Amino acid sequence: MDLGISGKRALVCAASKGLGYACAEALAQAGAHLVIVARNEAPLRAAAEQLRSLGPATVEAVAADITTGEGRASALAAAARLPGGGAVEFDILVTNAGGPPAGDFRDWDDAIWHQALNANMLTPIALMRETLDGMMSRGWGRICNITSTAVKAPSPYLGLSNGARSGLTGFVAGLARQVAGSGVTINNLLPGTFDTDRLRSNLAAAAGQAEMALDAYTAKRLDAIPARRFGRADEFGAACAFLCSQQAAYFTAQNLLIDGGAYPGTL
Ligand code: NAP
After folding, report:
1. Nearest in space to 24 (alpha carbons), one of 79, 76, 86, 95
2. Which of these, 195, 217, 194, 221, lies nearest to 204 by C-alpha position?
3. Does the reported pTM lie above 0.90?
4. How far is the CA of 82 from the centre of ligand 1 (A)?
5. Secondary structure of 15-70 in HEC code, one letter for each residue
6. How far is the CA of 198 from the centre of ligand 1 (A)?
7. Which Gene3D superfamilies has this protein been placed in (predicted)?
8. In this structure, are residues 246 and 5 in contact, taking their beta carbons and an 8 Å threshold?
9. Within 87-213, where are the H helices?
10. From residue 213, how far is each of 27, 94, 155 by CA, in Å?
């Protein structure tokens, strides 16, 4: 299916690996020009090379920490290096950052909470603030925030994620409706359990907390997923590209859960 976004300019955050990379890949396959961001230069460069090999899209790699003002400024400035770009002119924004650590609420002091809120709530809000007016003035834009299944069903060990991402979700629920008449959509993508580096480190931490062997704990987690497997990142990327498509123009303010049926609710 032609998604109608060939030549659009996309900023995909935290995109050298995992879900962010998969979103970048699906957007590149749809013909979008990309700025991708991650902190570590070598994997980021490798990711950019891989994306360039997929087709004619221009891919700019920005090695930066997206949770800092300076990092965001470098990422936004890179729009000018894309075909047809100018300062801060993205048509598509995919927000993402590393998730906060698992743990016990007793161990989280104010500094740890501020870090989680900054990465998983305030950073996406700052990026939307910087890009939305341009999208609205051009009458077209797509914003996808990578959040988590934790906003539908909290995870006992990921309280920082449950809290910070729910704050973002509440903010987006209002903002998306405020800008819906301007041709800009804002949606959240909620990953269930996807096979990425992040999942592997979370599984190890959770197995330790549950005092179980990793294999046994992983099998228990798989048992709780009706699809009987973890998600593949490319499946997530395809959903992101669809939400960024022309065809998805009437989807806004939605929270799309992709979890192999794990969430047990009817809605
Ligand atoms: P991942 O495989 O660990 O990949 C994380 C990516 O983000 C890497 O490219 C990493 O590169 C980049 N990154 C991390 N912090 C960054 C920062 N401050 N600035 C710029 N780039 C940064 O993780 P993932 O599984 O794709 O997860 C992505 C997000 O989805 C996380 O917030 C995670 O909590 C959430 N999530 C994942 C799952 C799952 O099952 N995988 C489920 C629910 C929620 P560098 O380290 O080089 O910066």
Report:
1. 95
2. 217
3. yes
4. 24
5. CCCHHHHHHHHHHHHCCCEEEEEECCHHHHHHHHHHHHCCCCCCEEEEECCCCCHH
6. 6
7. NAD(P)-binding Rossmann-like Domain
8. yes
9. 110-117, 123-138, 159-179, 197-209
10. 38, 36, 19
User: From residue 112, how far is each of 49, 118, 182, 236 by CA, in Å?
Assistant: 35, 10, 37, 29
Q: How far is the CA of 14 from the centre of ligand 1 (A)?
A: 6
| Pocket perturbation via mutation, ligand 1, pick of 36, 39, 94, 225 by most ligand atoms within 8 A of CB | 39
Per-residue pLDDT of the chain (267 residues), as tens digits, is: 999 999 999 999 999 999 999 999 999 999 999 999 999 999 999 999 999 999 788 999 999 999 999 999 999 999 999 997 666 699 999 999 999 988 899 999 999 999 999 999 999 999 999 999 999 999 999 999 999 999 999 988 899 999 999 999 999 999 999 999 999 999 999 999 999 998 888 888 889 888 999 999 999 999 999 999 999 999 999 999 999 999 999 999 999 999 999 999 999
The neighbour count for residue 222, using CB atoms within 10 Å, is 14
Q: Give the distance (Å) from ligand 1 centre to CA of residue 137.
A: 31
How many CB atoms lie under 10 A from the CB of residue 170? 12
Longest dimension (CA), the chain: 54
d(CA 36, CA 62): 6
d(CA 184, CA 94): 13
